[in-house]
Write a structure and sequence with these properties.
This protein has 603 residues and is an alpha+beta fold. The chain has four domains: 175 residues, Nucleotidyltransferase, domain 5; 99 residues, GIY-YIG endonuclease (3-Layer(aba) Sandwich), CATH 3.40.1440.10; 142 residues, no CATH class; 85 residues, no CATH class. Helices cover 40% and strands 17% of the residues. The strands form four sheets. Strands 3-2-1-4-5 form a five-stranded mixed sheet, sandwiched between helices. A four-stranded antiparallel sheet has the order 14-13-12-15, with helices on both faces. It is elongated and about 100 Å long. The chain starts with 11 loop residues before the first helix and ends in a 14-residue tail after the last helix.
């Protein structure tokens, strides 16, 4: 973890991939129309270059297996007779993918060409293109827009005096695009574009005075994971975020983001602080701690851990469920923390669906009597208020709730599933969906509570998992649920590095880096009501490939209901996913059947 702002000499690897080492494939397609959904490719053309040297060319006509509109034939000169007998796209596309493997794609109006390529890949069940993409049209708008009447390929070819003129044929247009691209690269060099990462981000940067003035805030940031913070001229922390690549993430704020929030943030920003972290886990934890410590105005999440609530089963003669904001040593059973009052109320509704404990807040003593409510008449409350249930009988029902919150939830879960299926079988699908959502909230709350409680009660824990680079391991030292330190080391040095971290952890837990006002100060305290950091650590420990190296106290979760909850959570997530889409998306996917003619009508 970088704990000071002292500048260090960066290596060439830190700066990014130099342009002279990048292989570019400049591609152009001819098609039967402008939409990838209804049109097909008729010709491929591609030129491969590196460091200004021609490495190869790829060209092929393609049988679109459909008619070519006359207007397209007039524009490109490609007729139906020319493509008869040519290979179809499924025969050409694999060869093209091999030709551009590992290269950066370049195209004029790249969205058009990449859109057609991805649409055809999807039709053939291939994965989409993962290559970096550079659009020469976007570069031209940034570099020469004031010198040309428009940014069409023909106009730019004339401006840069290319040897090849574009004629709406794929290979000729690709050759012309290569020369235009080289001319644009010369212009971009004066803006400090020397790496592939610079080039990809450069075309996205907006050219307004505000973004020009603030663009220098990203200068000097490394290509490394870490945390960044926008500060105002007065030193106020405005926004805190994390990134796997600090330079690319901060530069993205000066790109095509049109949100008012981003514009207002950049207007007030004067400095961008950053901290390089060895692992993404440390970046995530440090982000949470800084947000909790400074409550930045432009951050929405993590700002108010005190808004979390707990669901409490009270310790009284006739217990009831209550939503509270604090945990006390009063003998009650607590579940949480839960993210909102609404989530807590959904969990309570799920429990009330199966176990008919009372919902009123009145104190009921041995001699208290008052008329029962409508829920008692409906059989949904045991009604201790009018004396119809004994203390022992009510205690059995309350015990089911306490057991579900702290032990085996099978009785409640099975009851909810049975209720959900009965409603669905009766055609009451909306009510069944409501029960499913309550069950899902209950299961999620139980899993999260058990996971965080296990970590909060553990002592010193050291774990490792495979790193992002081959033959490396990410190490994490956790103490009482909080992250103490992280590191990346070779796979052969895990034991040695773990011993070093364990020796260092006793001095102090990892806190915000002391880098000068206003980010100095002790680490914010974390208790059982503020478990966002613990949740991040638990998610890291649950990831595939994690191995425990050291654990001086037991790390365990209740066996009862464990497998049941995990399996049920996966099934509920799958069942809720289709209905979670916006209505506009679902409406767009519906197939409208043509109206059948009325057999009684005669034309």
């Amino acid at each position: 973890m970088t704990r000071s702002r002292v500048a260090a000499q960066q290596s060439f690897d830190d700066l990014g991939t130099p342009l002279y080492a990048v292989t570019f494939v400049v591609v152009d397609l001819e098609t039967t129309g402008g939409s990838p959904e209804g049109s097909r490719i008729t010709e491929f053309g591609a030129v491969k270059v590196r460091a200004g040297e021609l490495l190869g060319e790829f060209a092929s006509l393609v049988d679109p297996c459909t008619a070519i509109p006359a207007s397209i034939s007039a524009l490109t000169g490609i007729t139906r007779a020319m493509v008869e007998g040519r290979p179809p796209v499924e025969a050409v596309l694999p060869s093209f993918l091999e030709f551009c493997r590992g290269a950066t794609l370049v195209a004029h109006n790249a969205r058009f060409d990449v859109g057609f390529l991805n649409a055809n890949l999807a039709r053939l069940d291939y994965p989409g293109l993962a290559n970096p993409v550079v659009c020469t049209a976007s570069l031209a708008r940034r570099l020469v827009r004031d010198e040309v009447r428009d940014c069409r390929l023909a106009t730019l070819a004339q401006f840069f005096r290319t040897r090849t003129r574009p004629v709406h044929r794929a290979l000729a247009d690709a050759r012309a695009t290569v020369e235009v691209f080289h001319g644009l690269l010369e212009r971009a060099g004066s803006f400090g574009v020397v790496t592939l990462e610079d080039l990809v981000g450069f075309a996205k940067v907006r050219n307004t005075p505000l973004f020009k003035a603030r663009r220098s805030l990203a200068d000097g940031l490394p290509h490394a994971p870490g945390v960044y913070a926008f500060r105002s001229a007065s030193g106020e922390v405005l926004y805190v975020g994390k990134a796997t690549d600090l330079r690319d993430r901060v530069r993205s704020y000066f790109g095509g983001d049109q949100r008012r929030k981003v514009v207002d943030l950049l207007k007030e920003s004067a400095v961008v602080d950053h901290w390089v972290c060895p692992t993404p886990l440390e970046a995530g934890v440090r982000e949470v701690r800084l947000i909790h410590a400074h409550r930045p105005r432009f951050n929405r999440r993590s700002k108010a851990p005190d808004r979390r609530v707990w669901l409490k089963l009270t310790a009284e003669r006739f217990p009831r469920l209550s939503v509270v904001r604090t945990v006390r040593e009063d003998g009650a059973v607590y579940l949480g923390p839960l993210p909102s009052r609404r989530a807590a109320e959904e969990v309570a509704e799920a429990l009330h669906e199966v176990v008919p404990i009372r919902r009123c807040s009145a104190r009921i003593g041995a001699s208290t009597r008052f008329p029962a409510c409508a829920l008692a008449e409906m059989g949904r409350c045991l009604a201790p208020c009018d004396g119809r249930v004994s203390v022992d009988r009510y205690a059995q029902a309350a015990g089911l709730v306490a057991g579900a919150l702290t032990g085996d939830p099978s009785a409640v879960v099975v009851g909810l599933e049975t209720r959900m299926r009965a409603l669905a079988a009766g055609g009451r699908f909306e009510e069944a969906a409501a029960v499913r959502n309550r069950l899902r909230t209950l299961v999620t709350a139980l899993l999260r509570s058990r996971r965080t409680a296990a970590l909060l009660d553990v002592g010193l824990l050291v774990a490792c998992r495979p790193g992002r680079r081959p033959a490396t391991r990410e190490l994490a030292v956790v103490r009482a649920g909080r992250l103490a330190a992280t590191a990346v080391c070779p796979a052969t040095a895990v034991s040695k590095r773990a011993a070093e971290l364990c020796a260092d952890h006793a001095a102090a837990l990892m806190g915000p880096a002391p880098t000068g006002p206003p980010l100095t100060g002790p680490a914010p305290t974390v208790d059982r009501t503020d478990v966002e950091e613990v949740t991040l650590v638990a998610a890291w420990l649950d990831a595939p490939g994690v191995r425990l190296h050291t654990c001086d106290a037991g790390l365990a979760r209740p066996v009862a209901g464990g497998r049941l909850l995990a399996d049920l959570a996966r099934r509920l997530d799958r069942s809720a996913r289709p209905t979670a889409r916006p209505e506009s998306e679902l409406a767009a996917k519906r197939t409208r059947r043509p109206a059948r003619p009325d057999p009684g009508c005669v034309d």
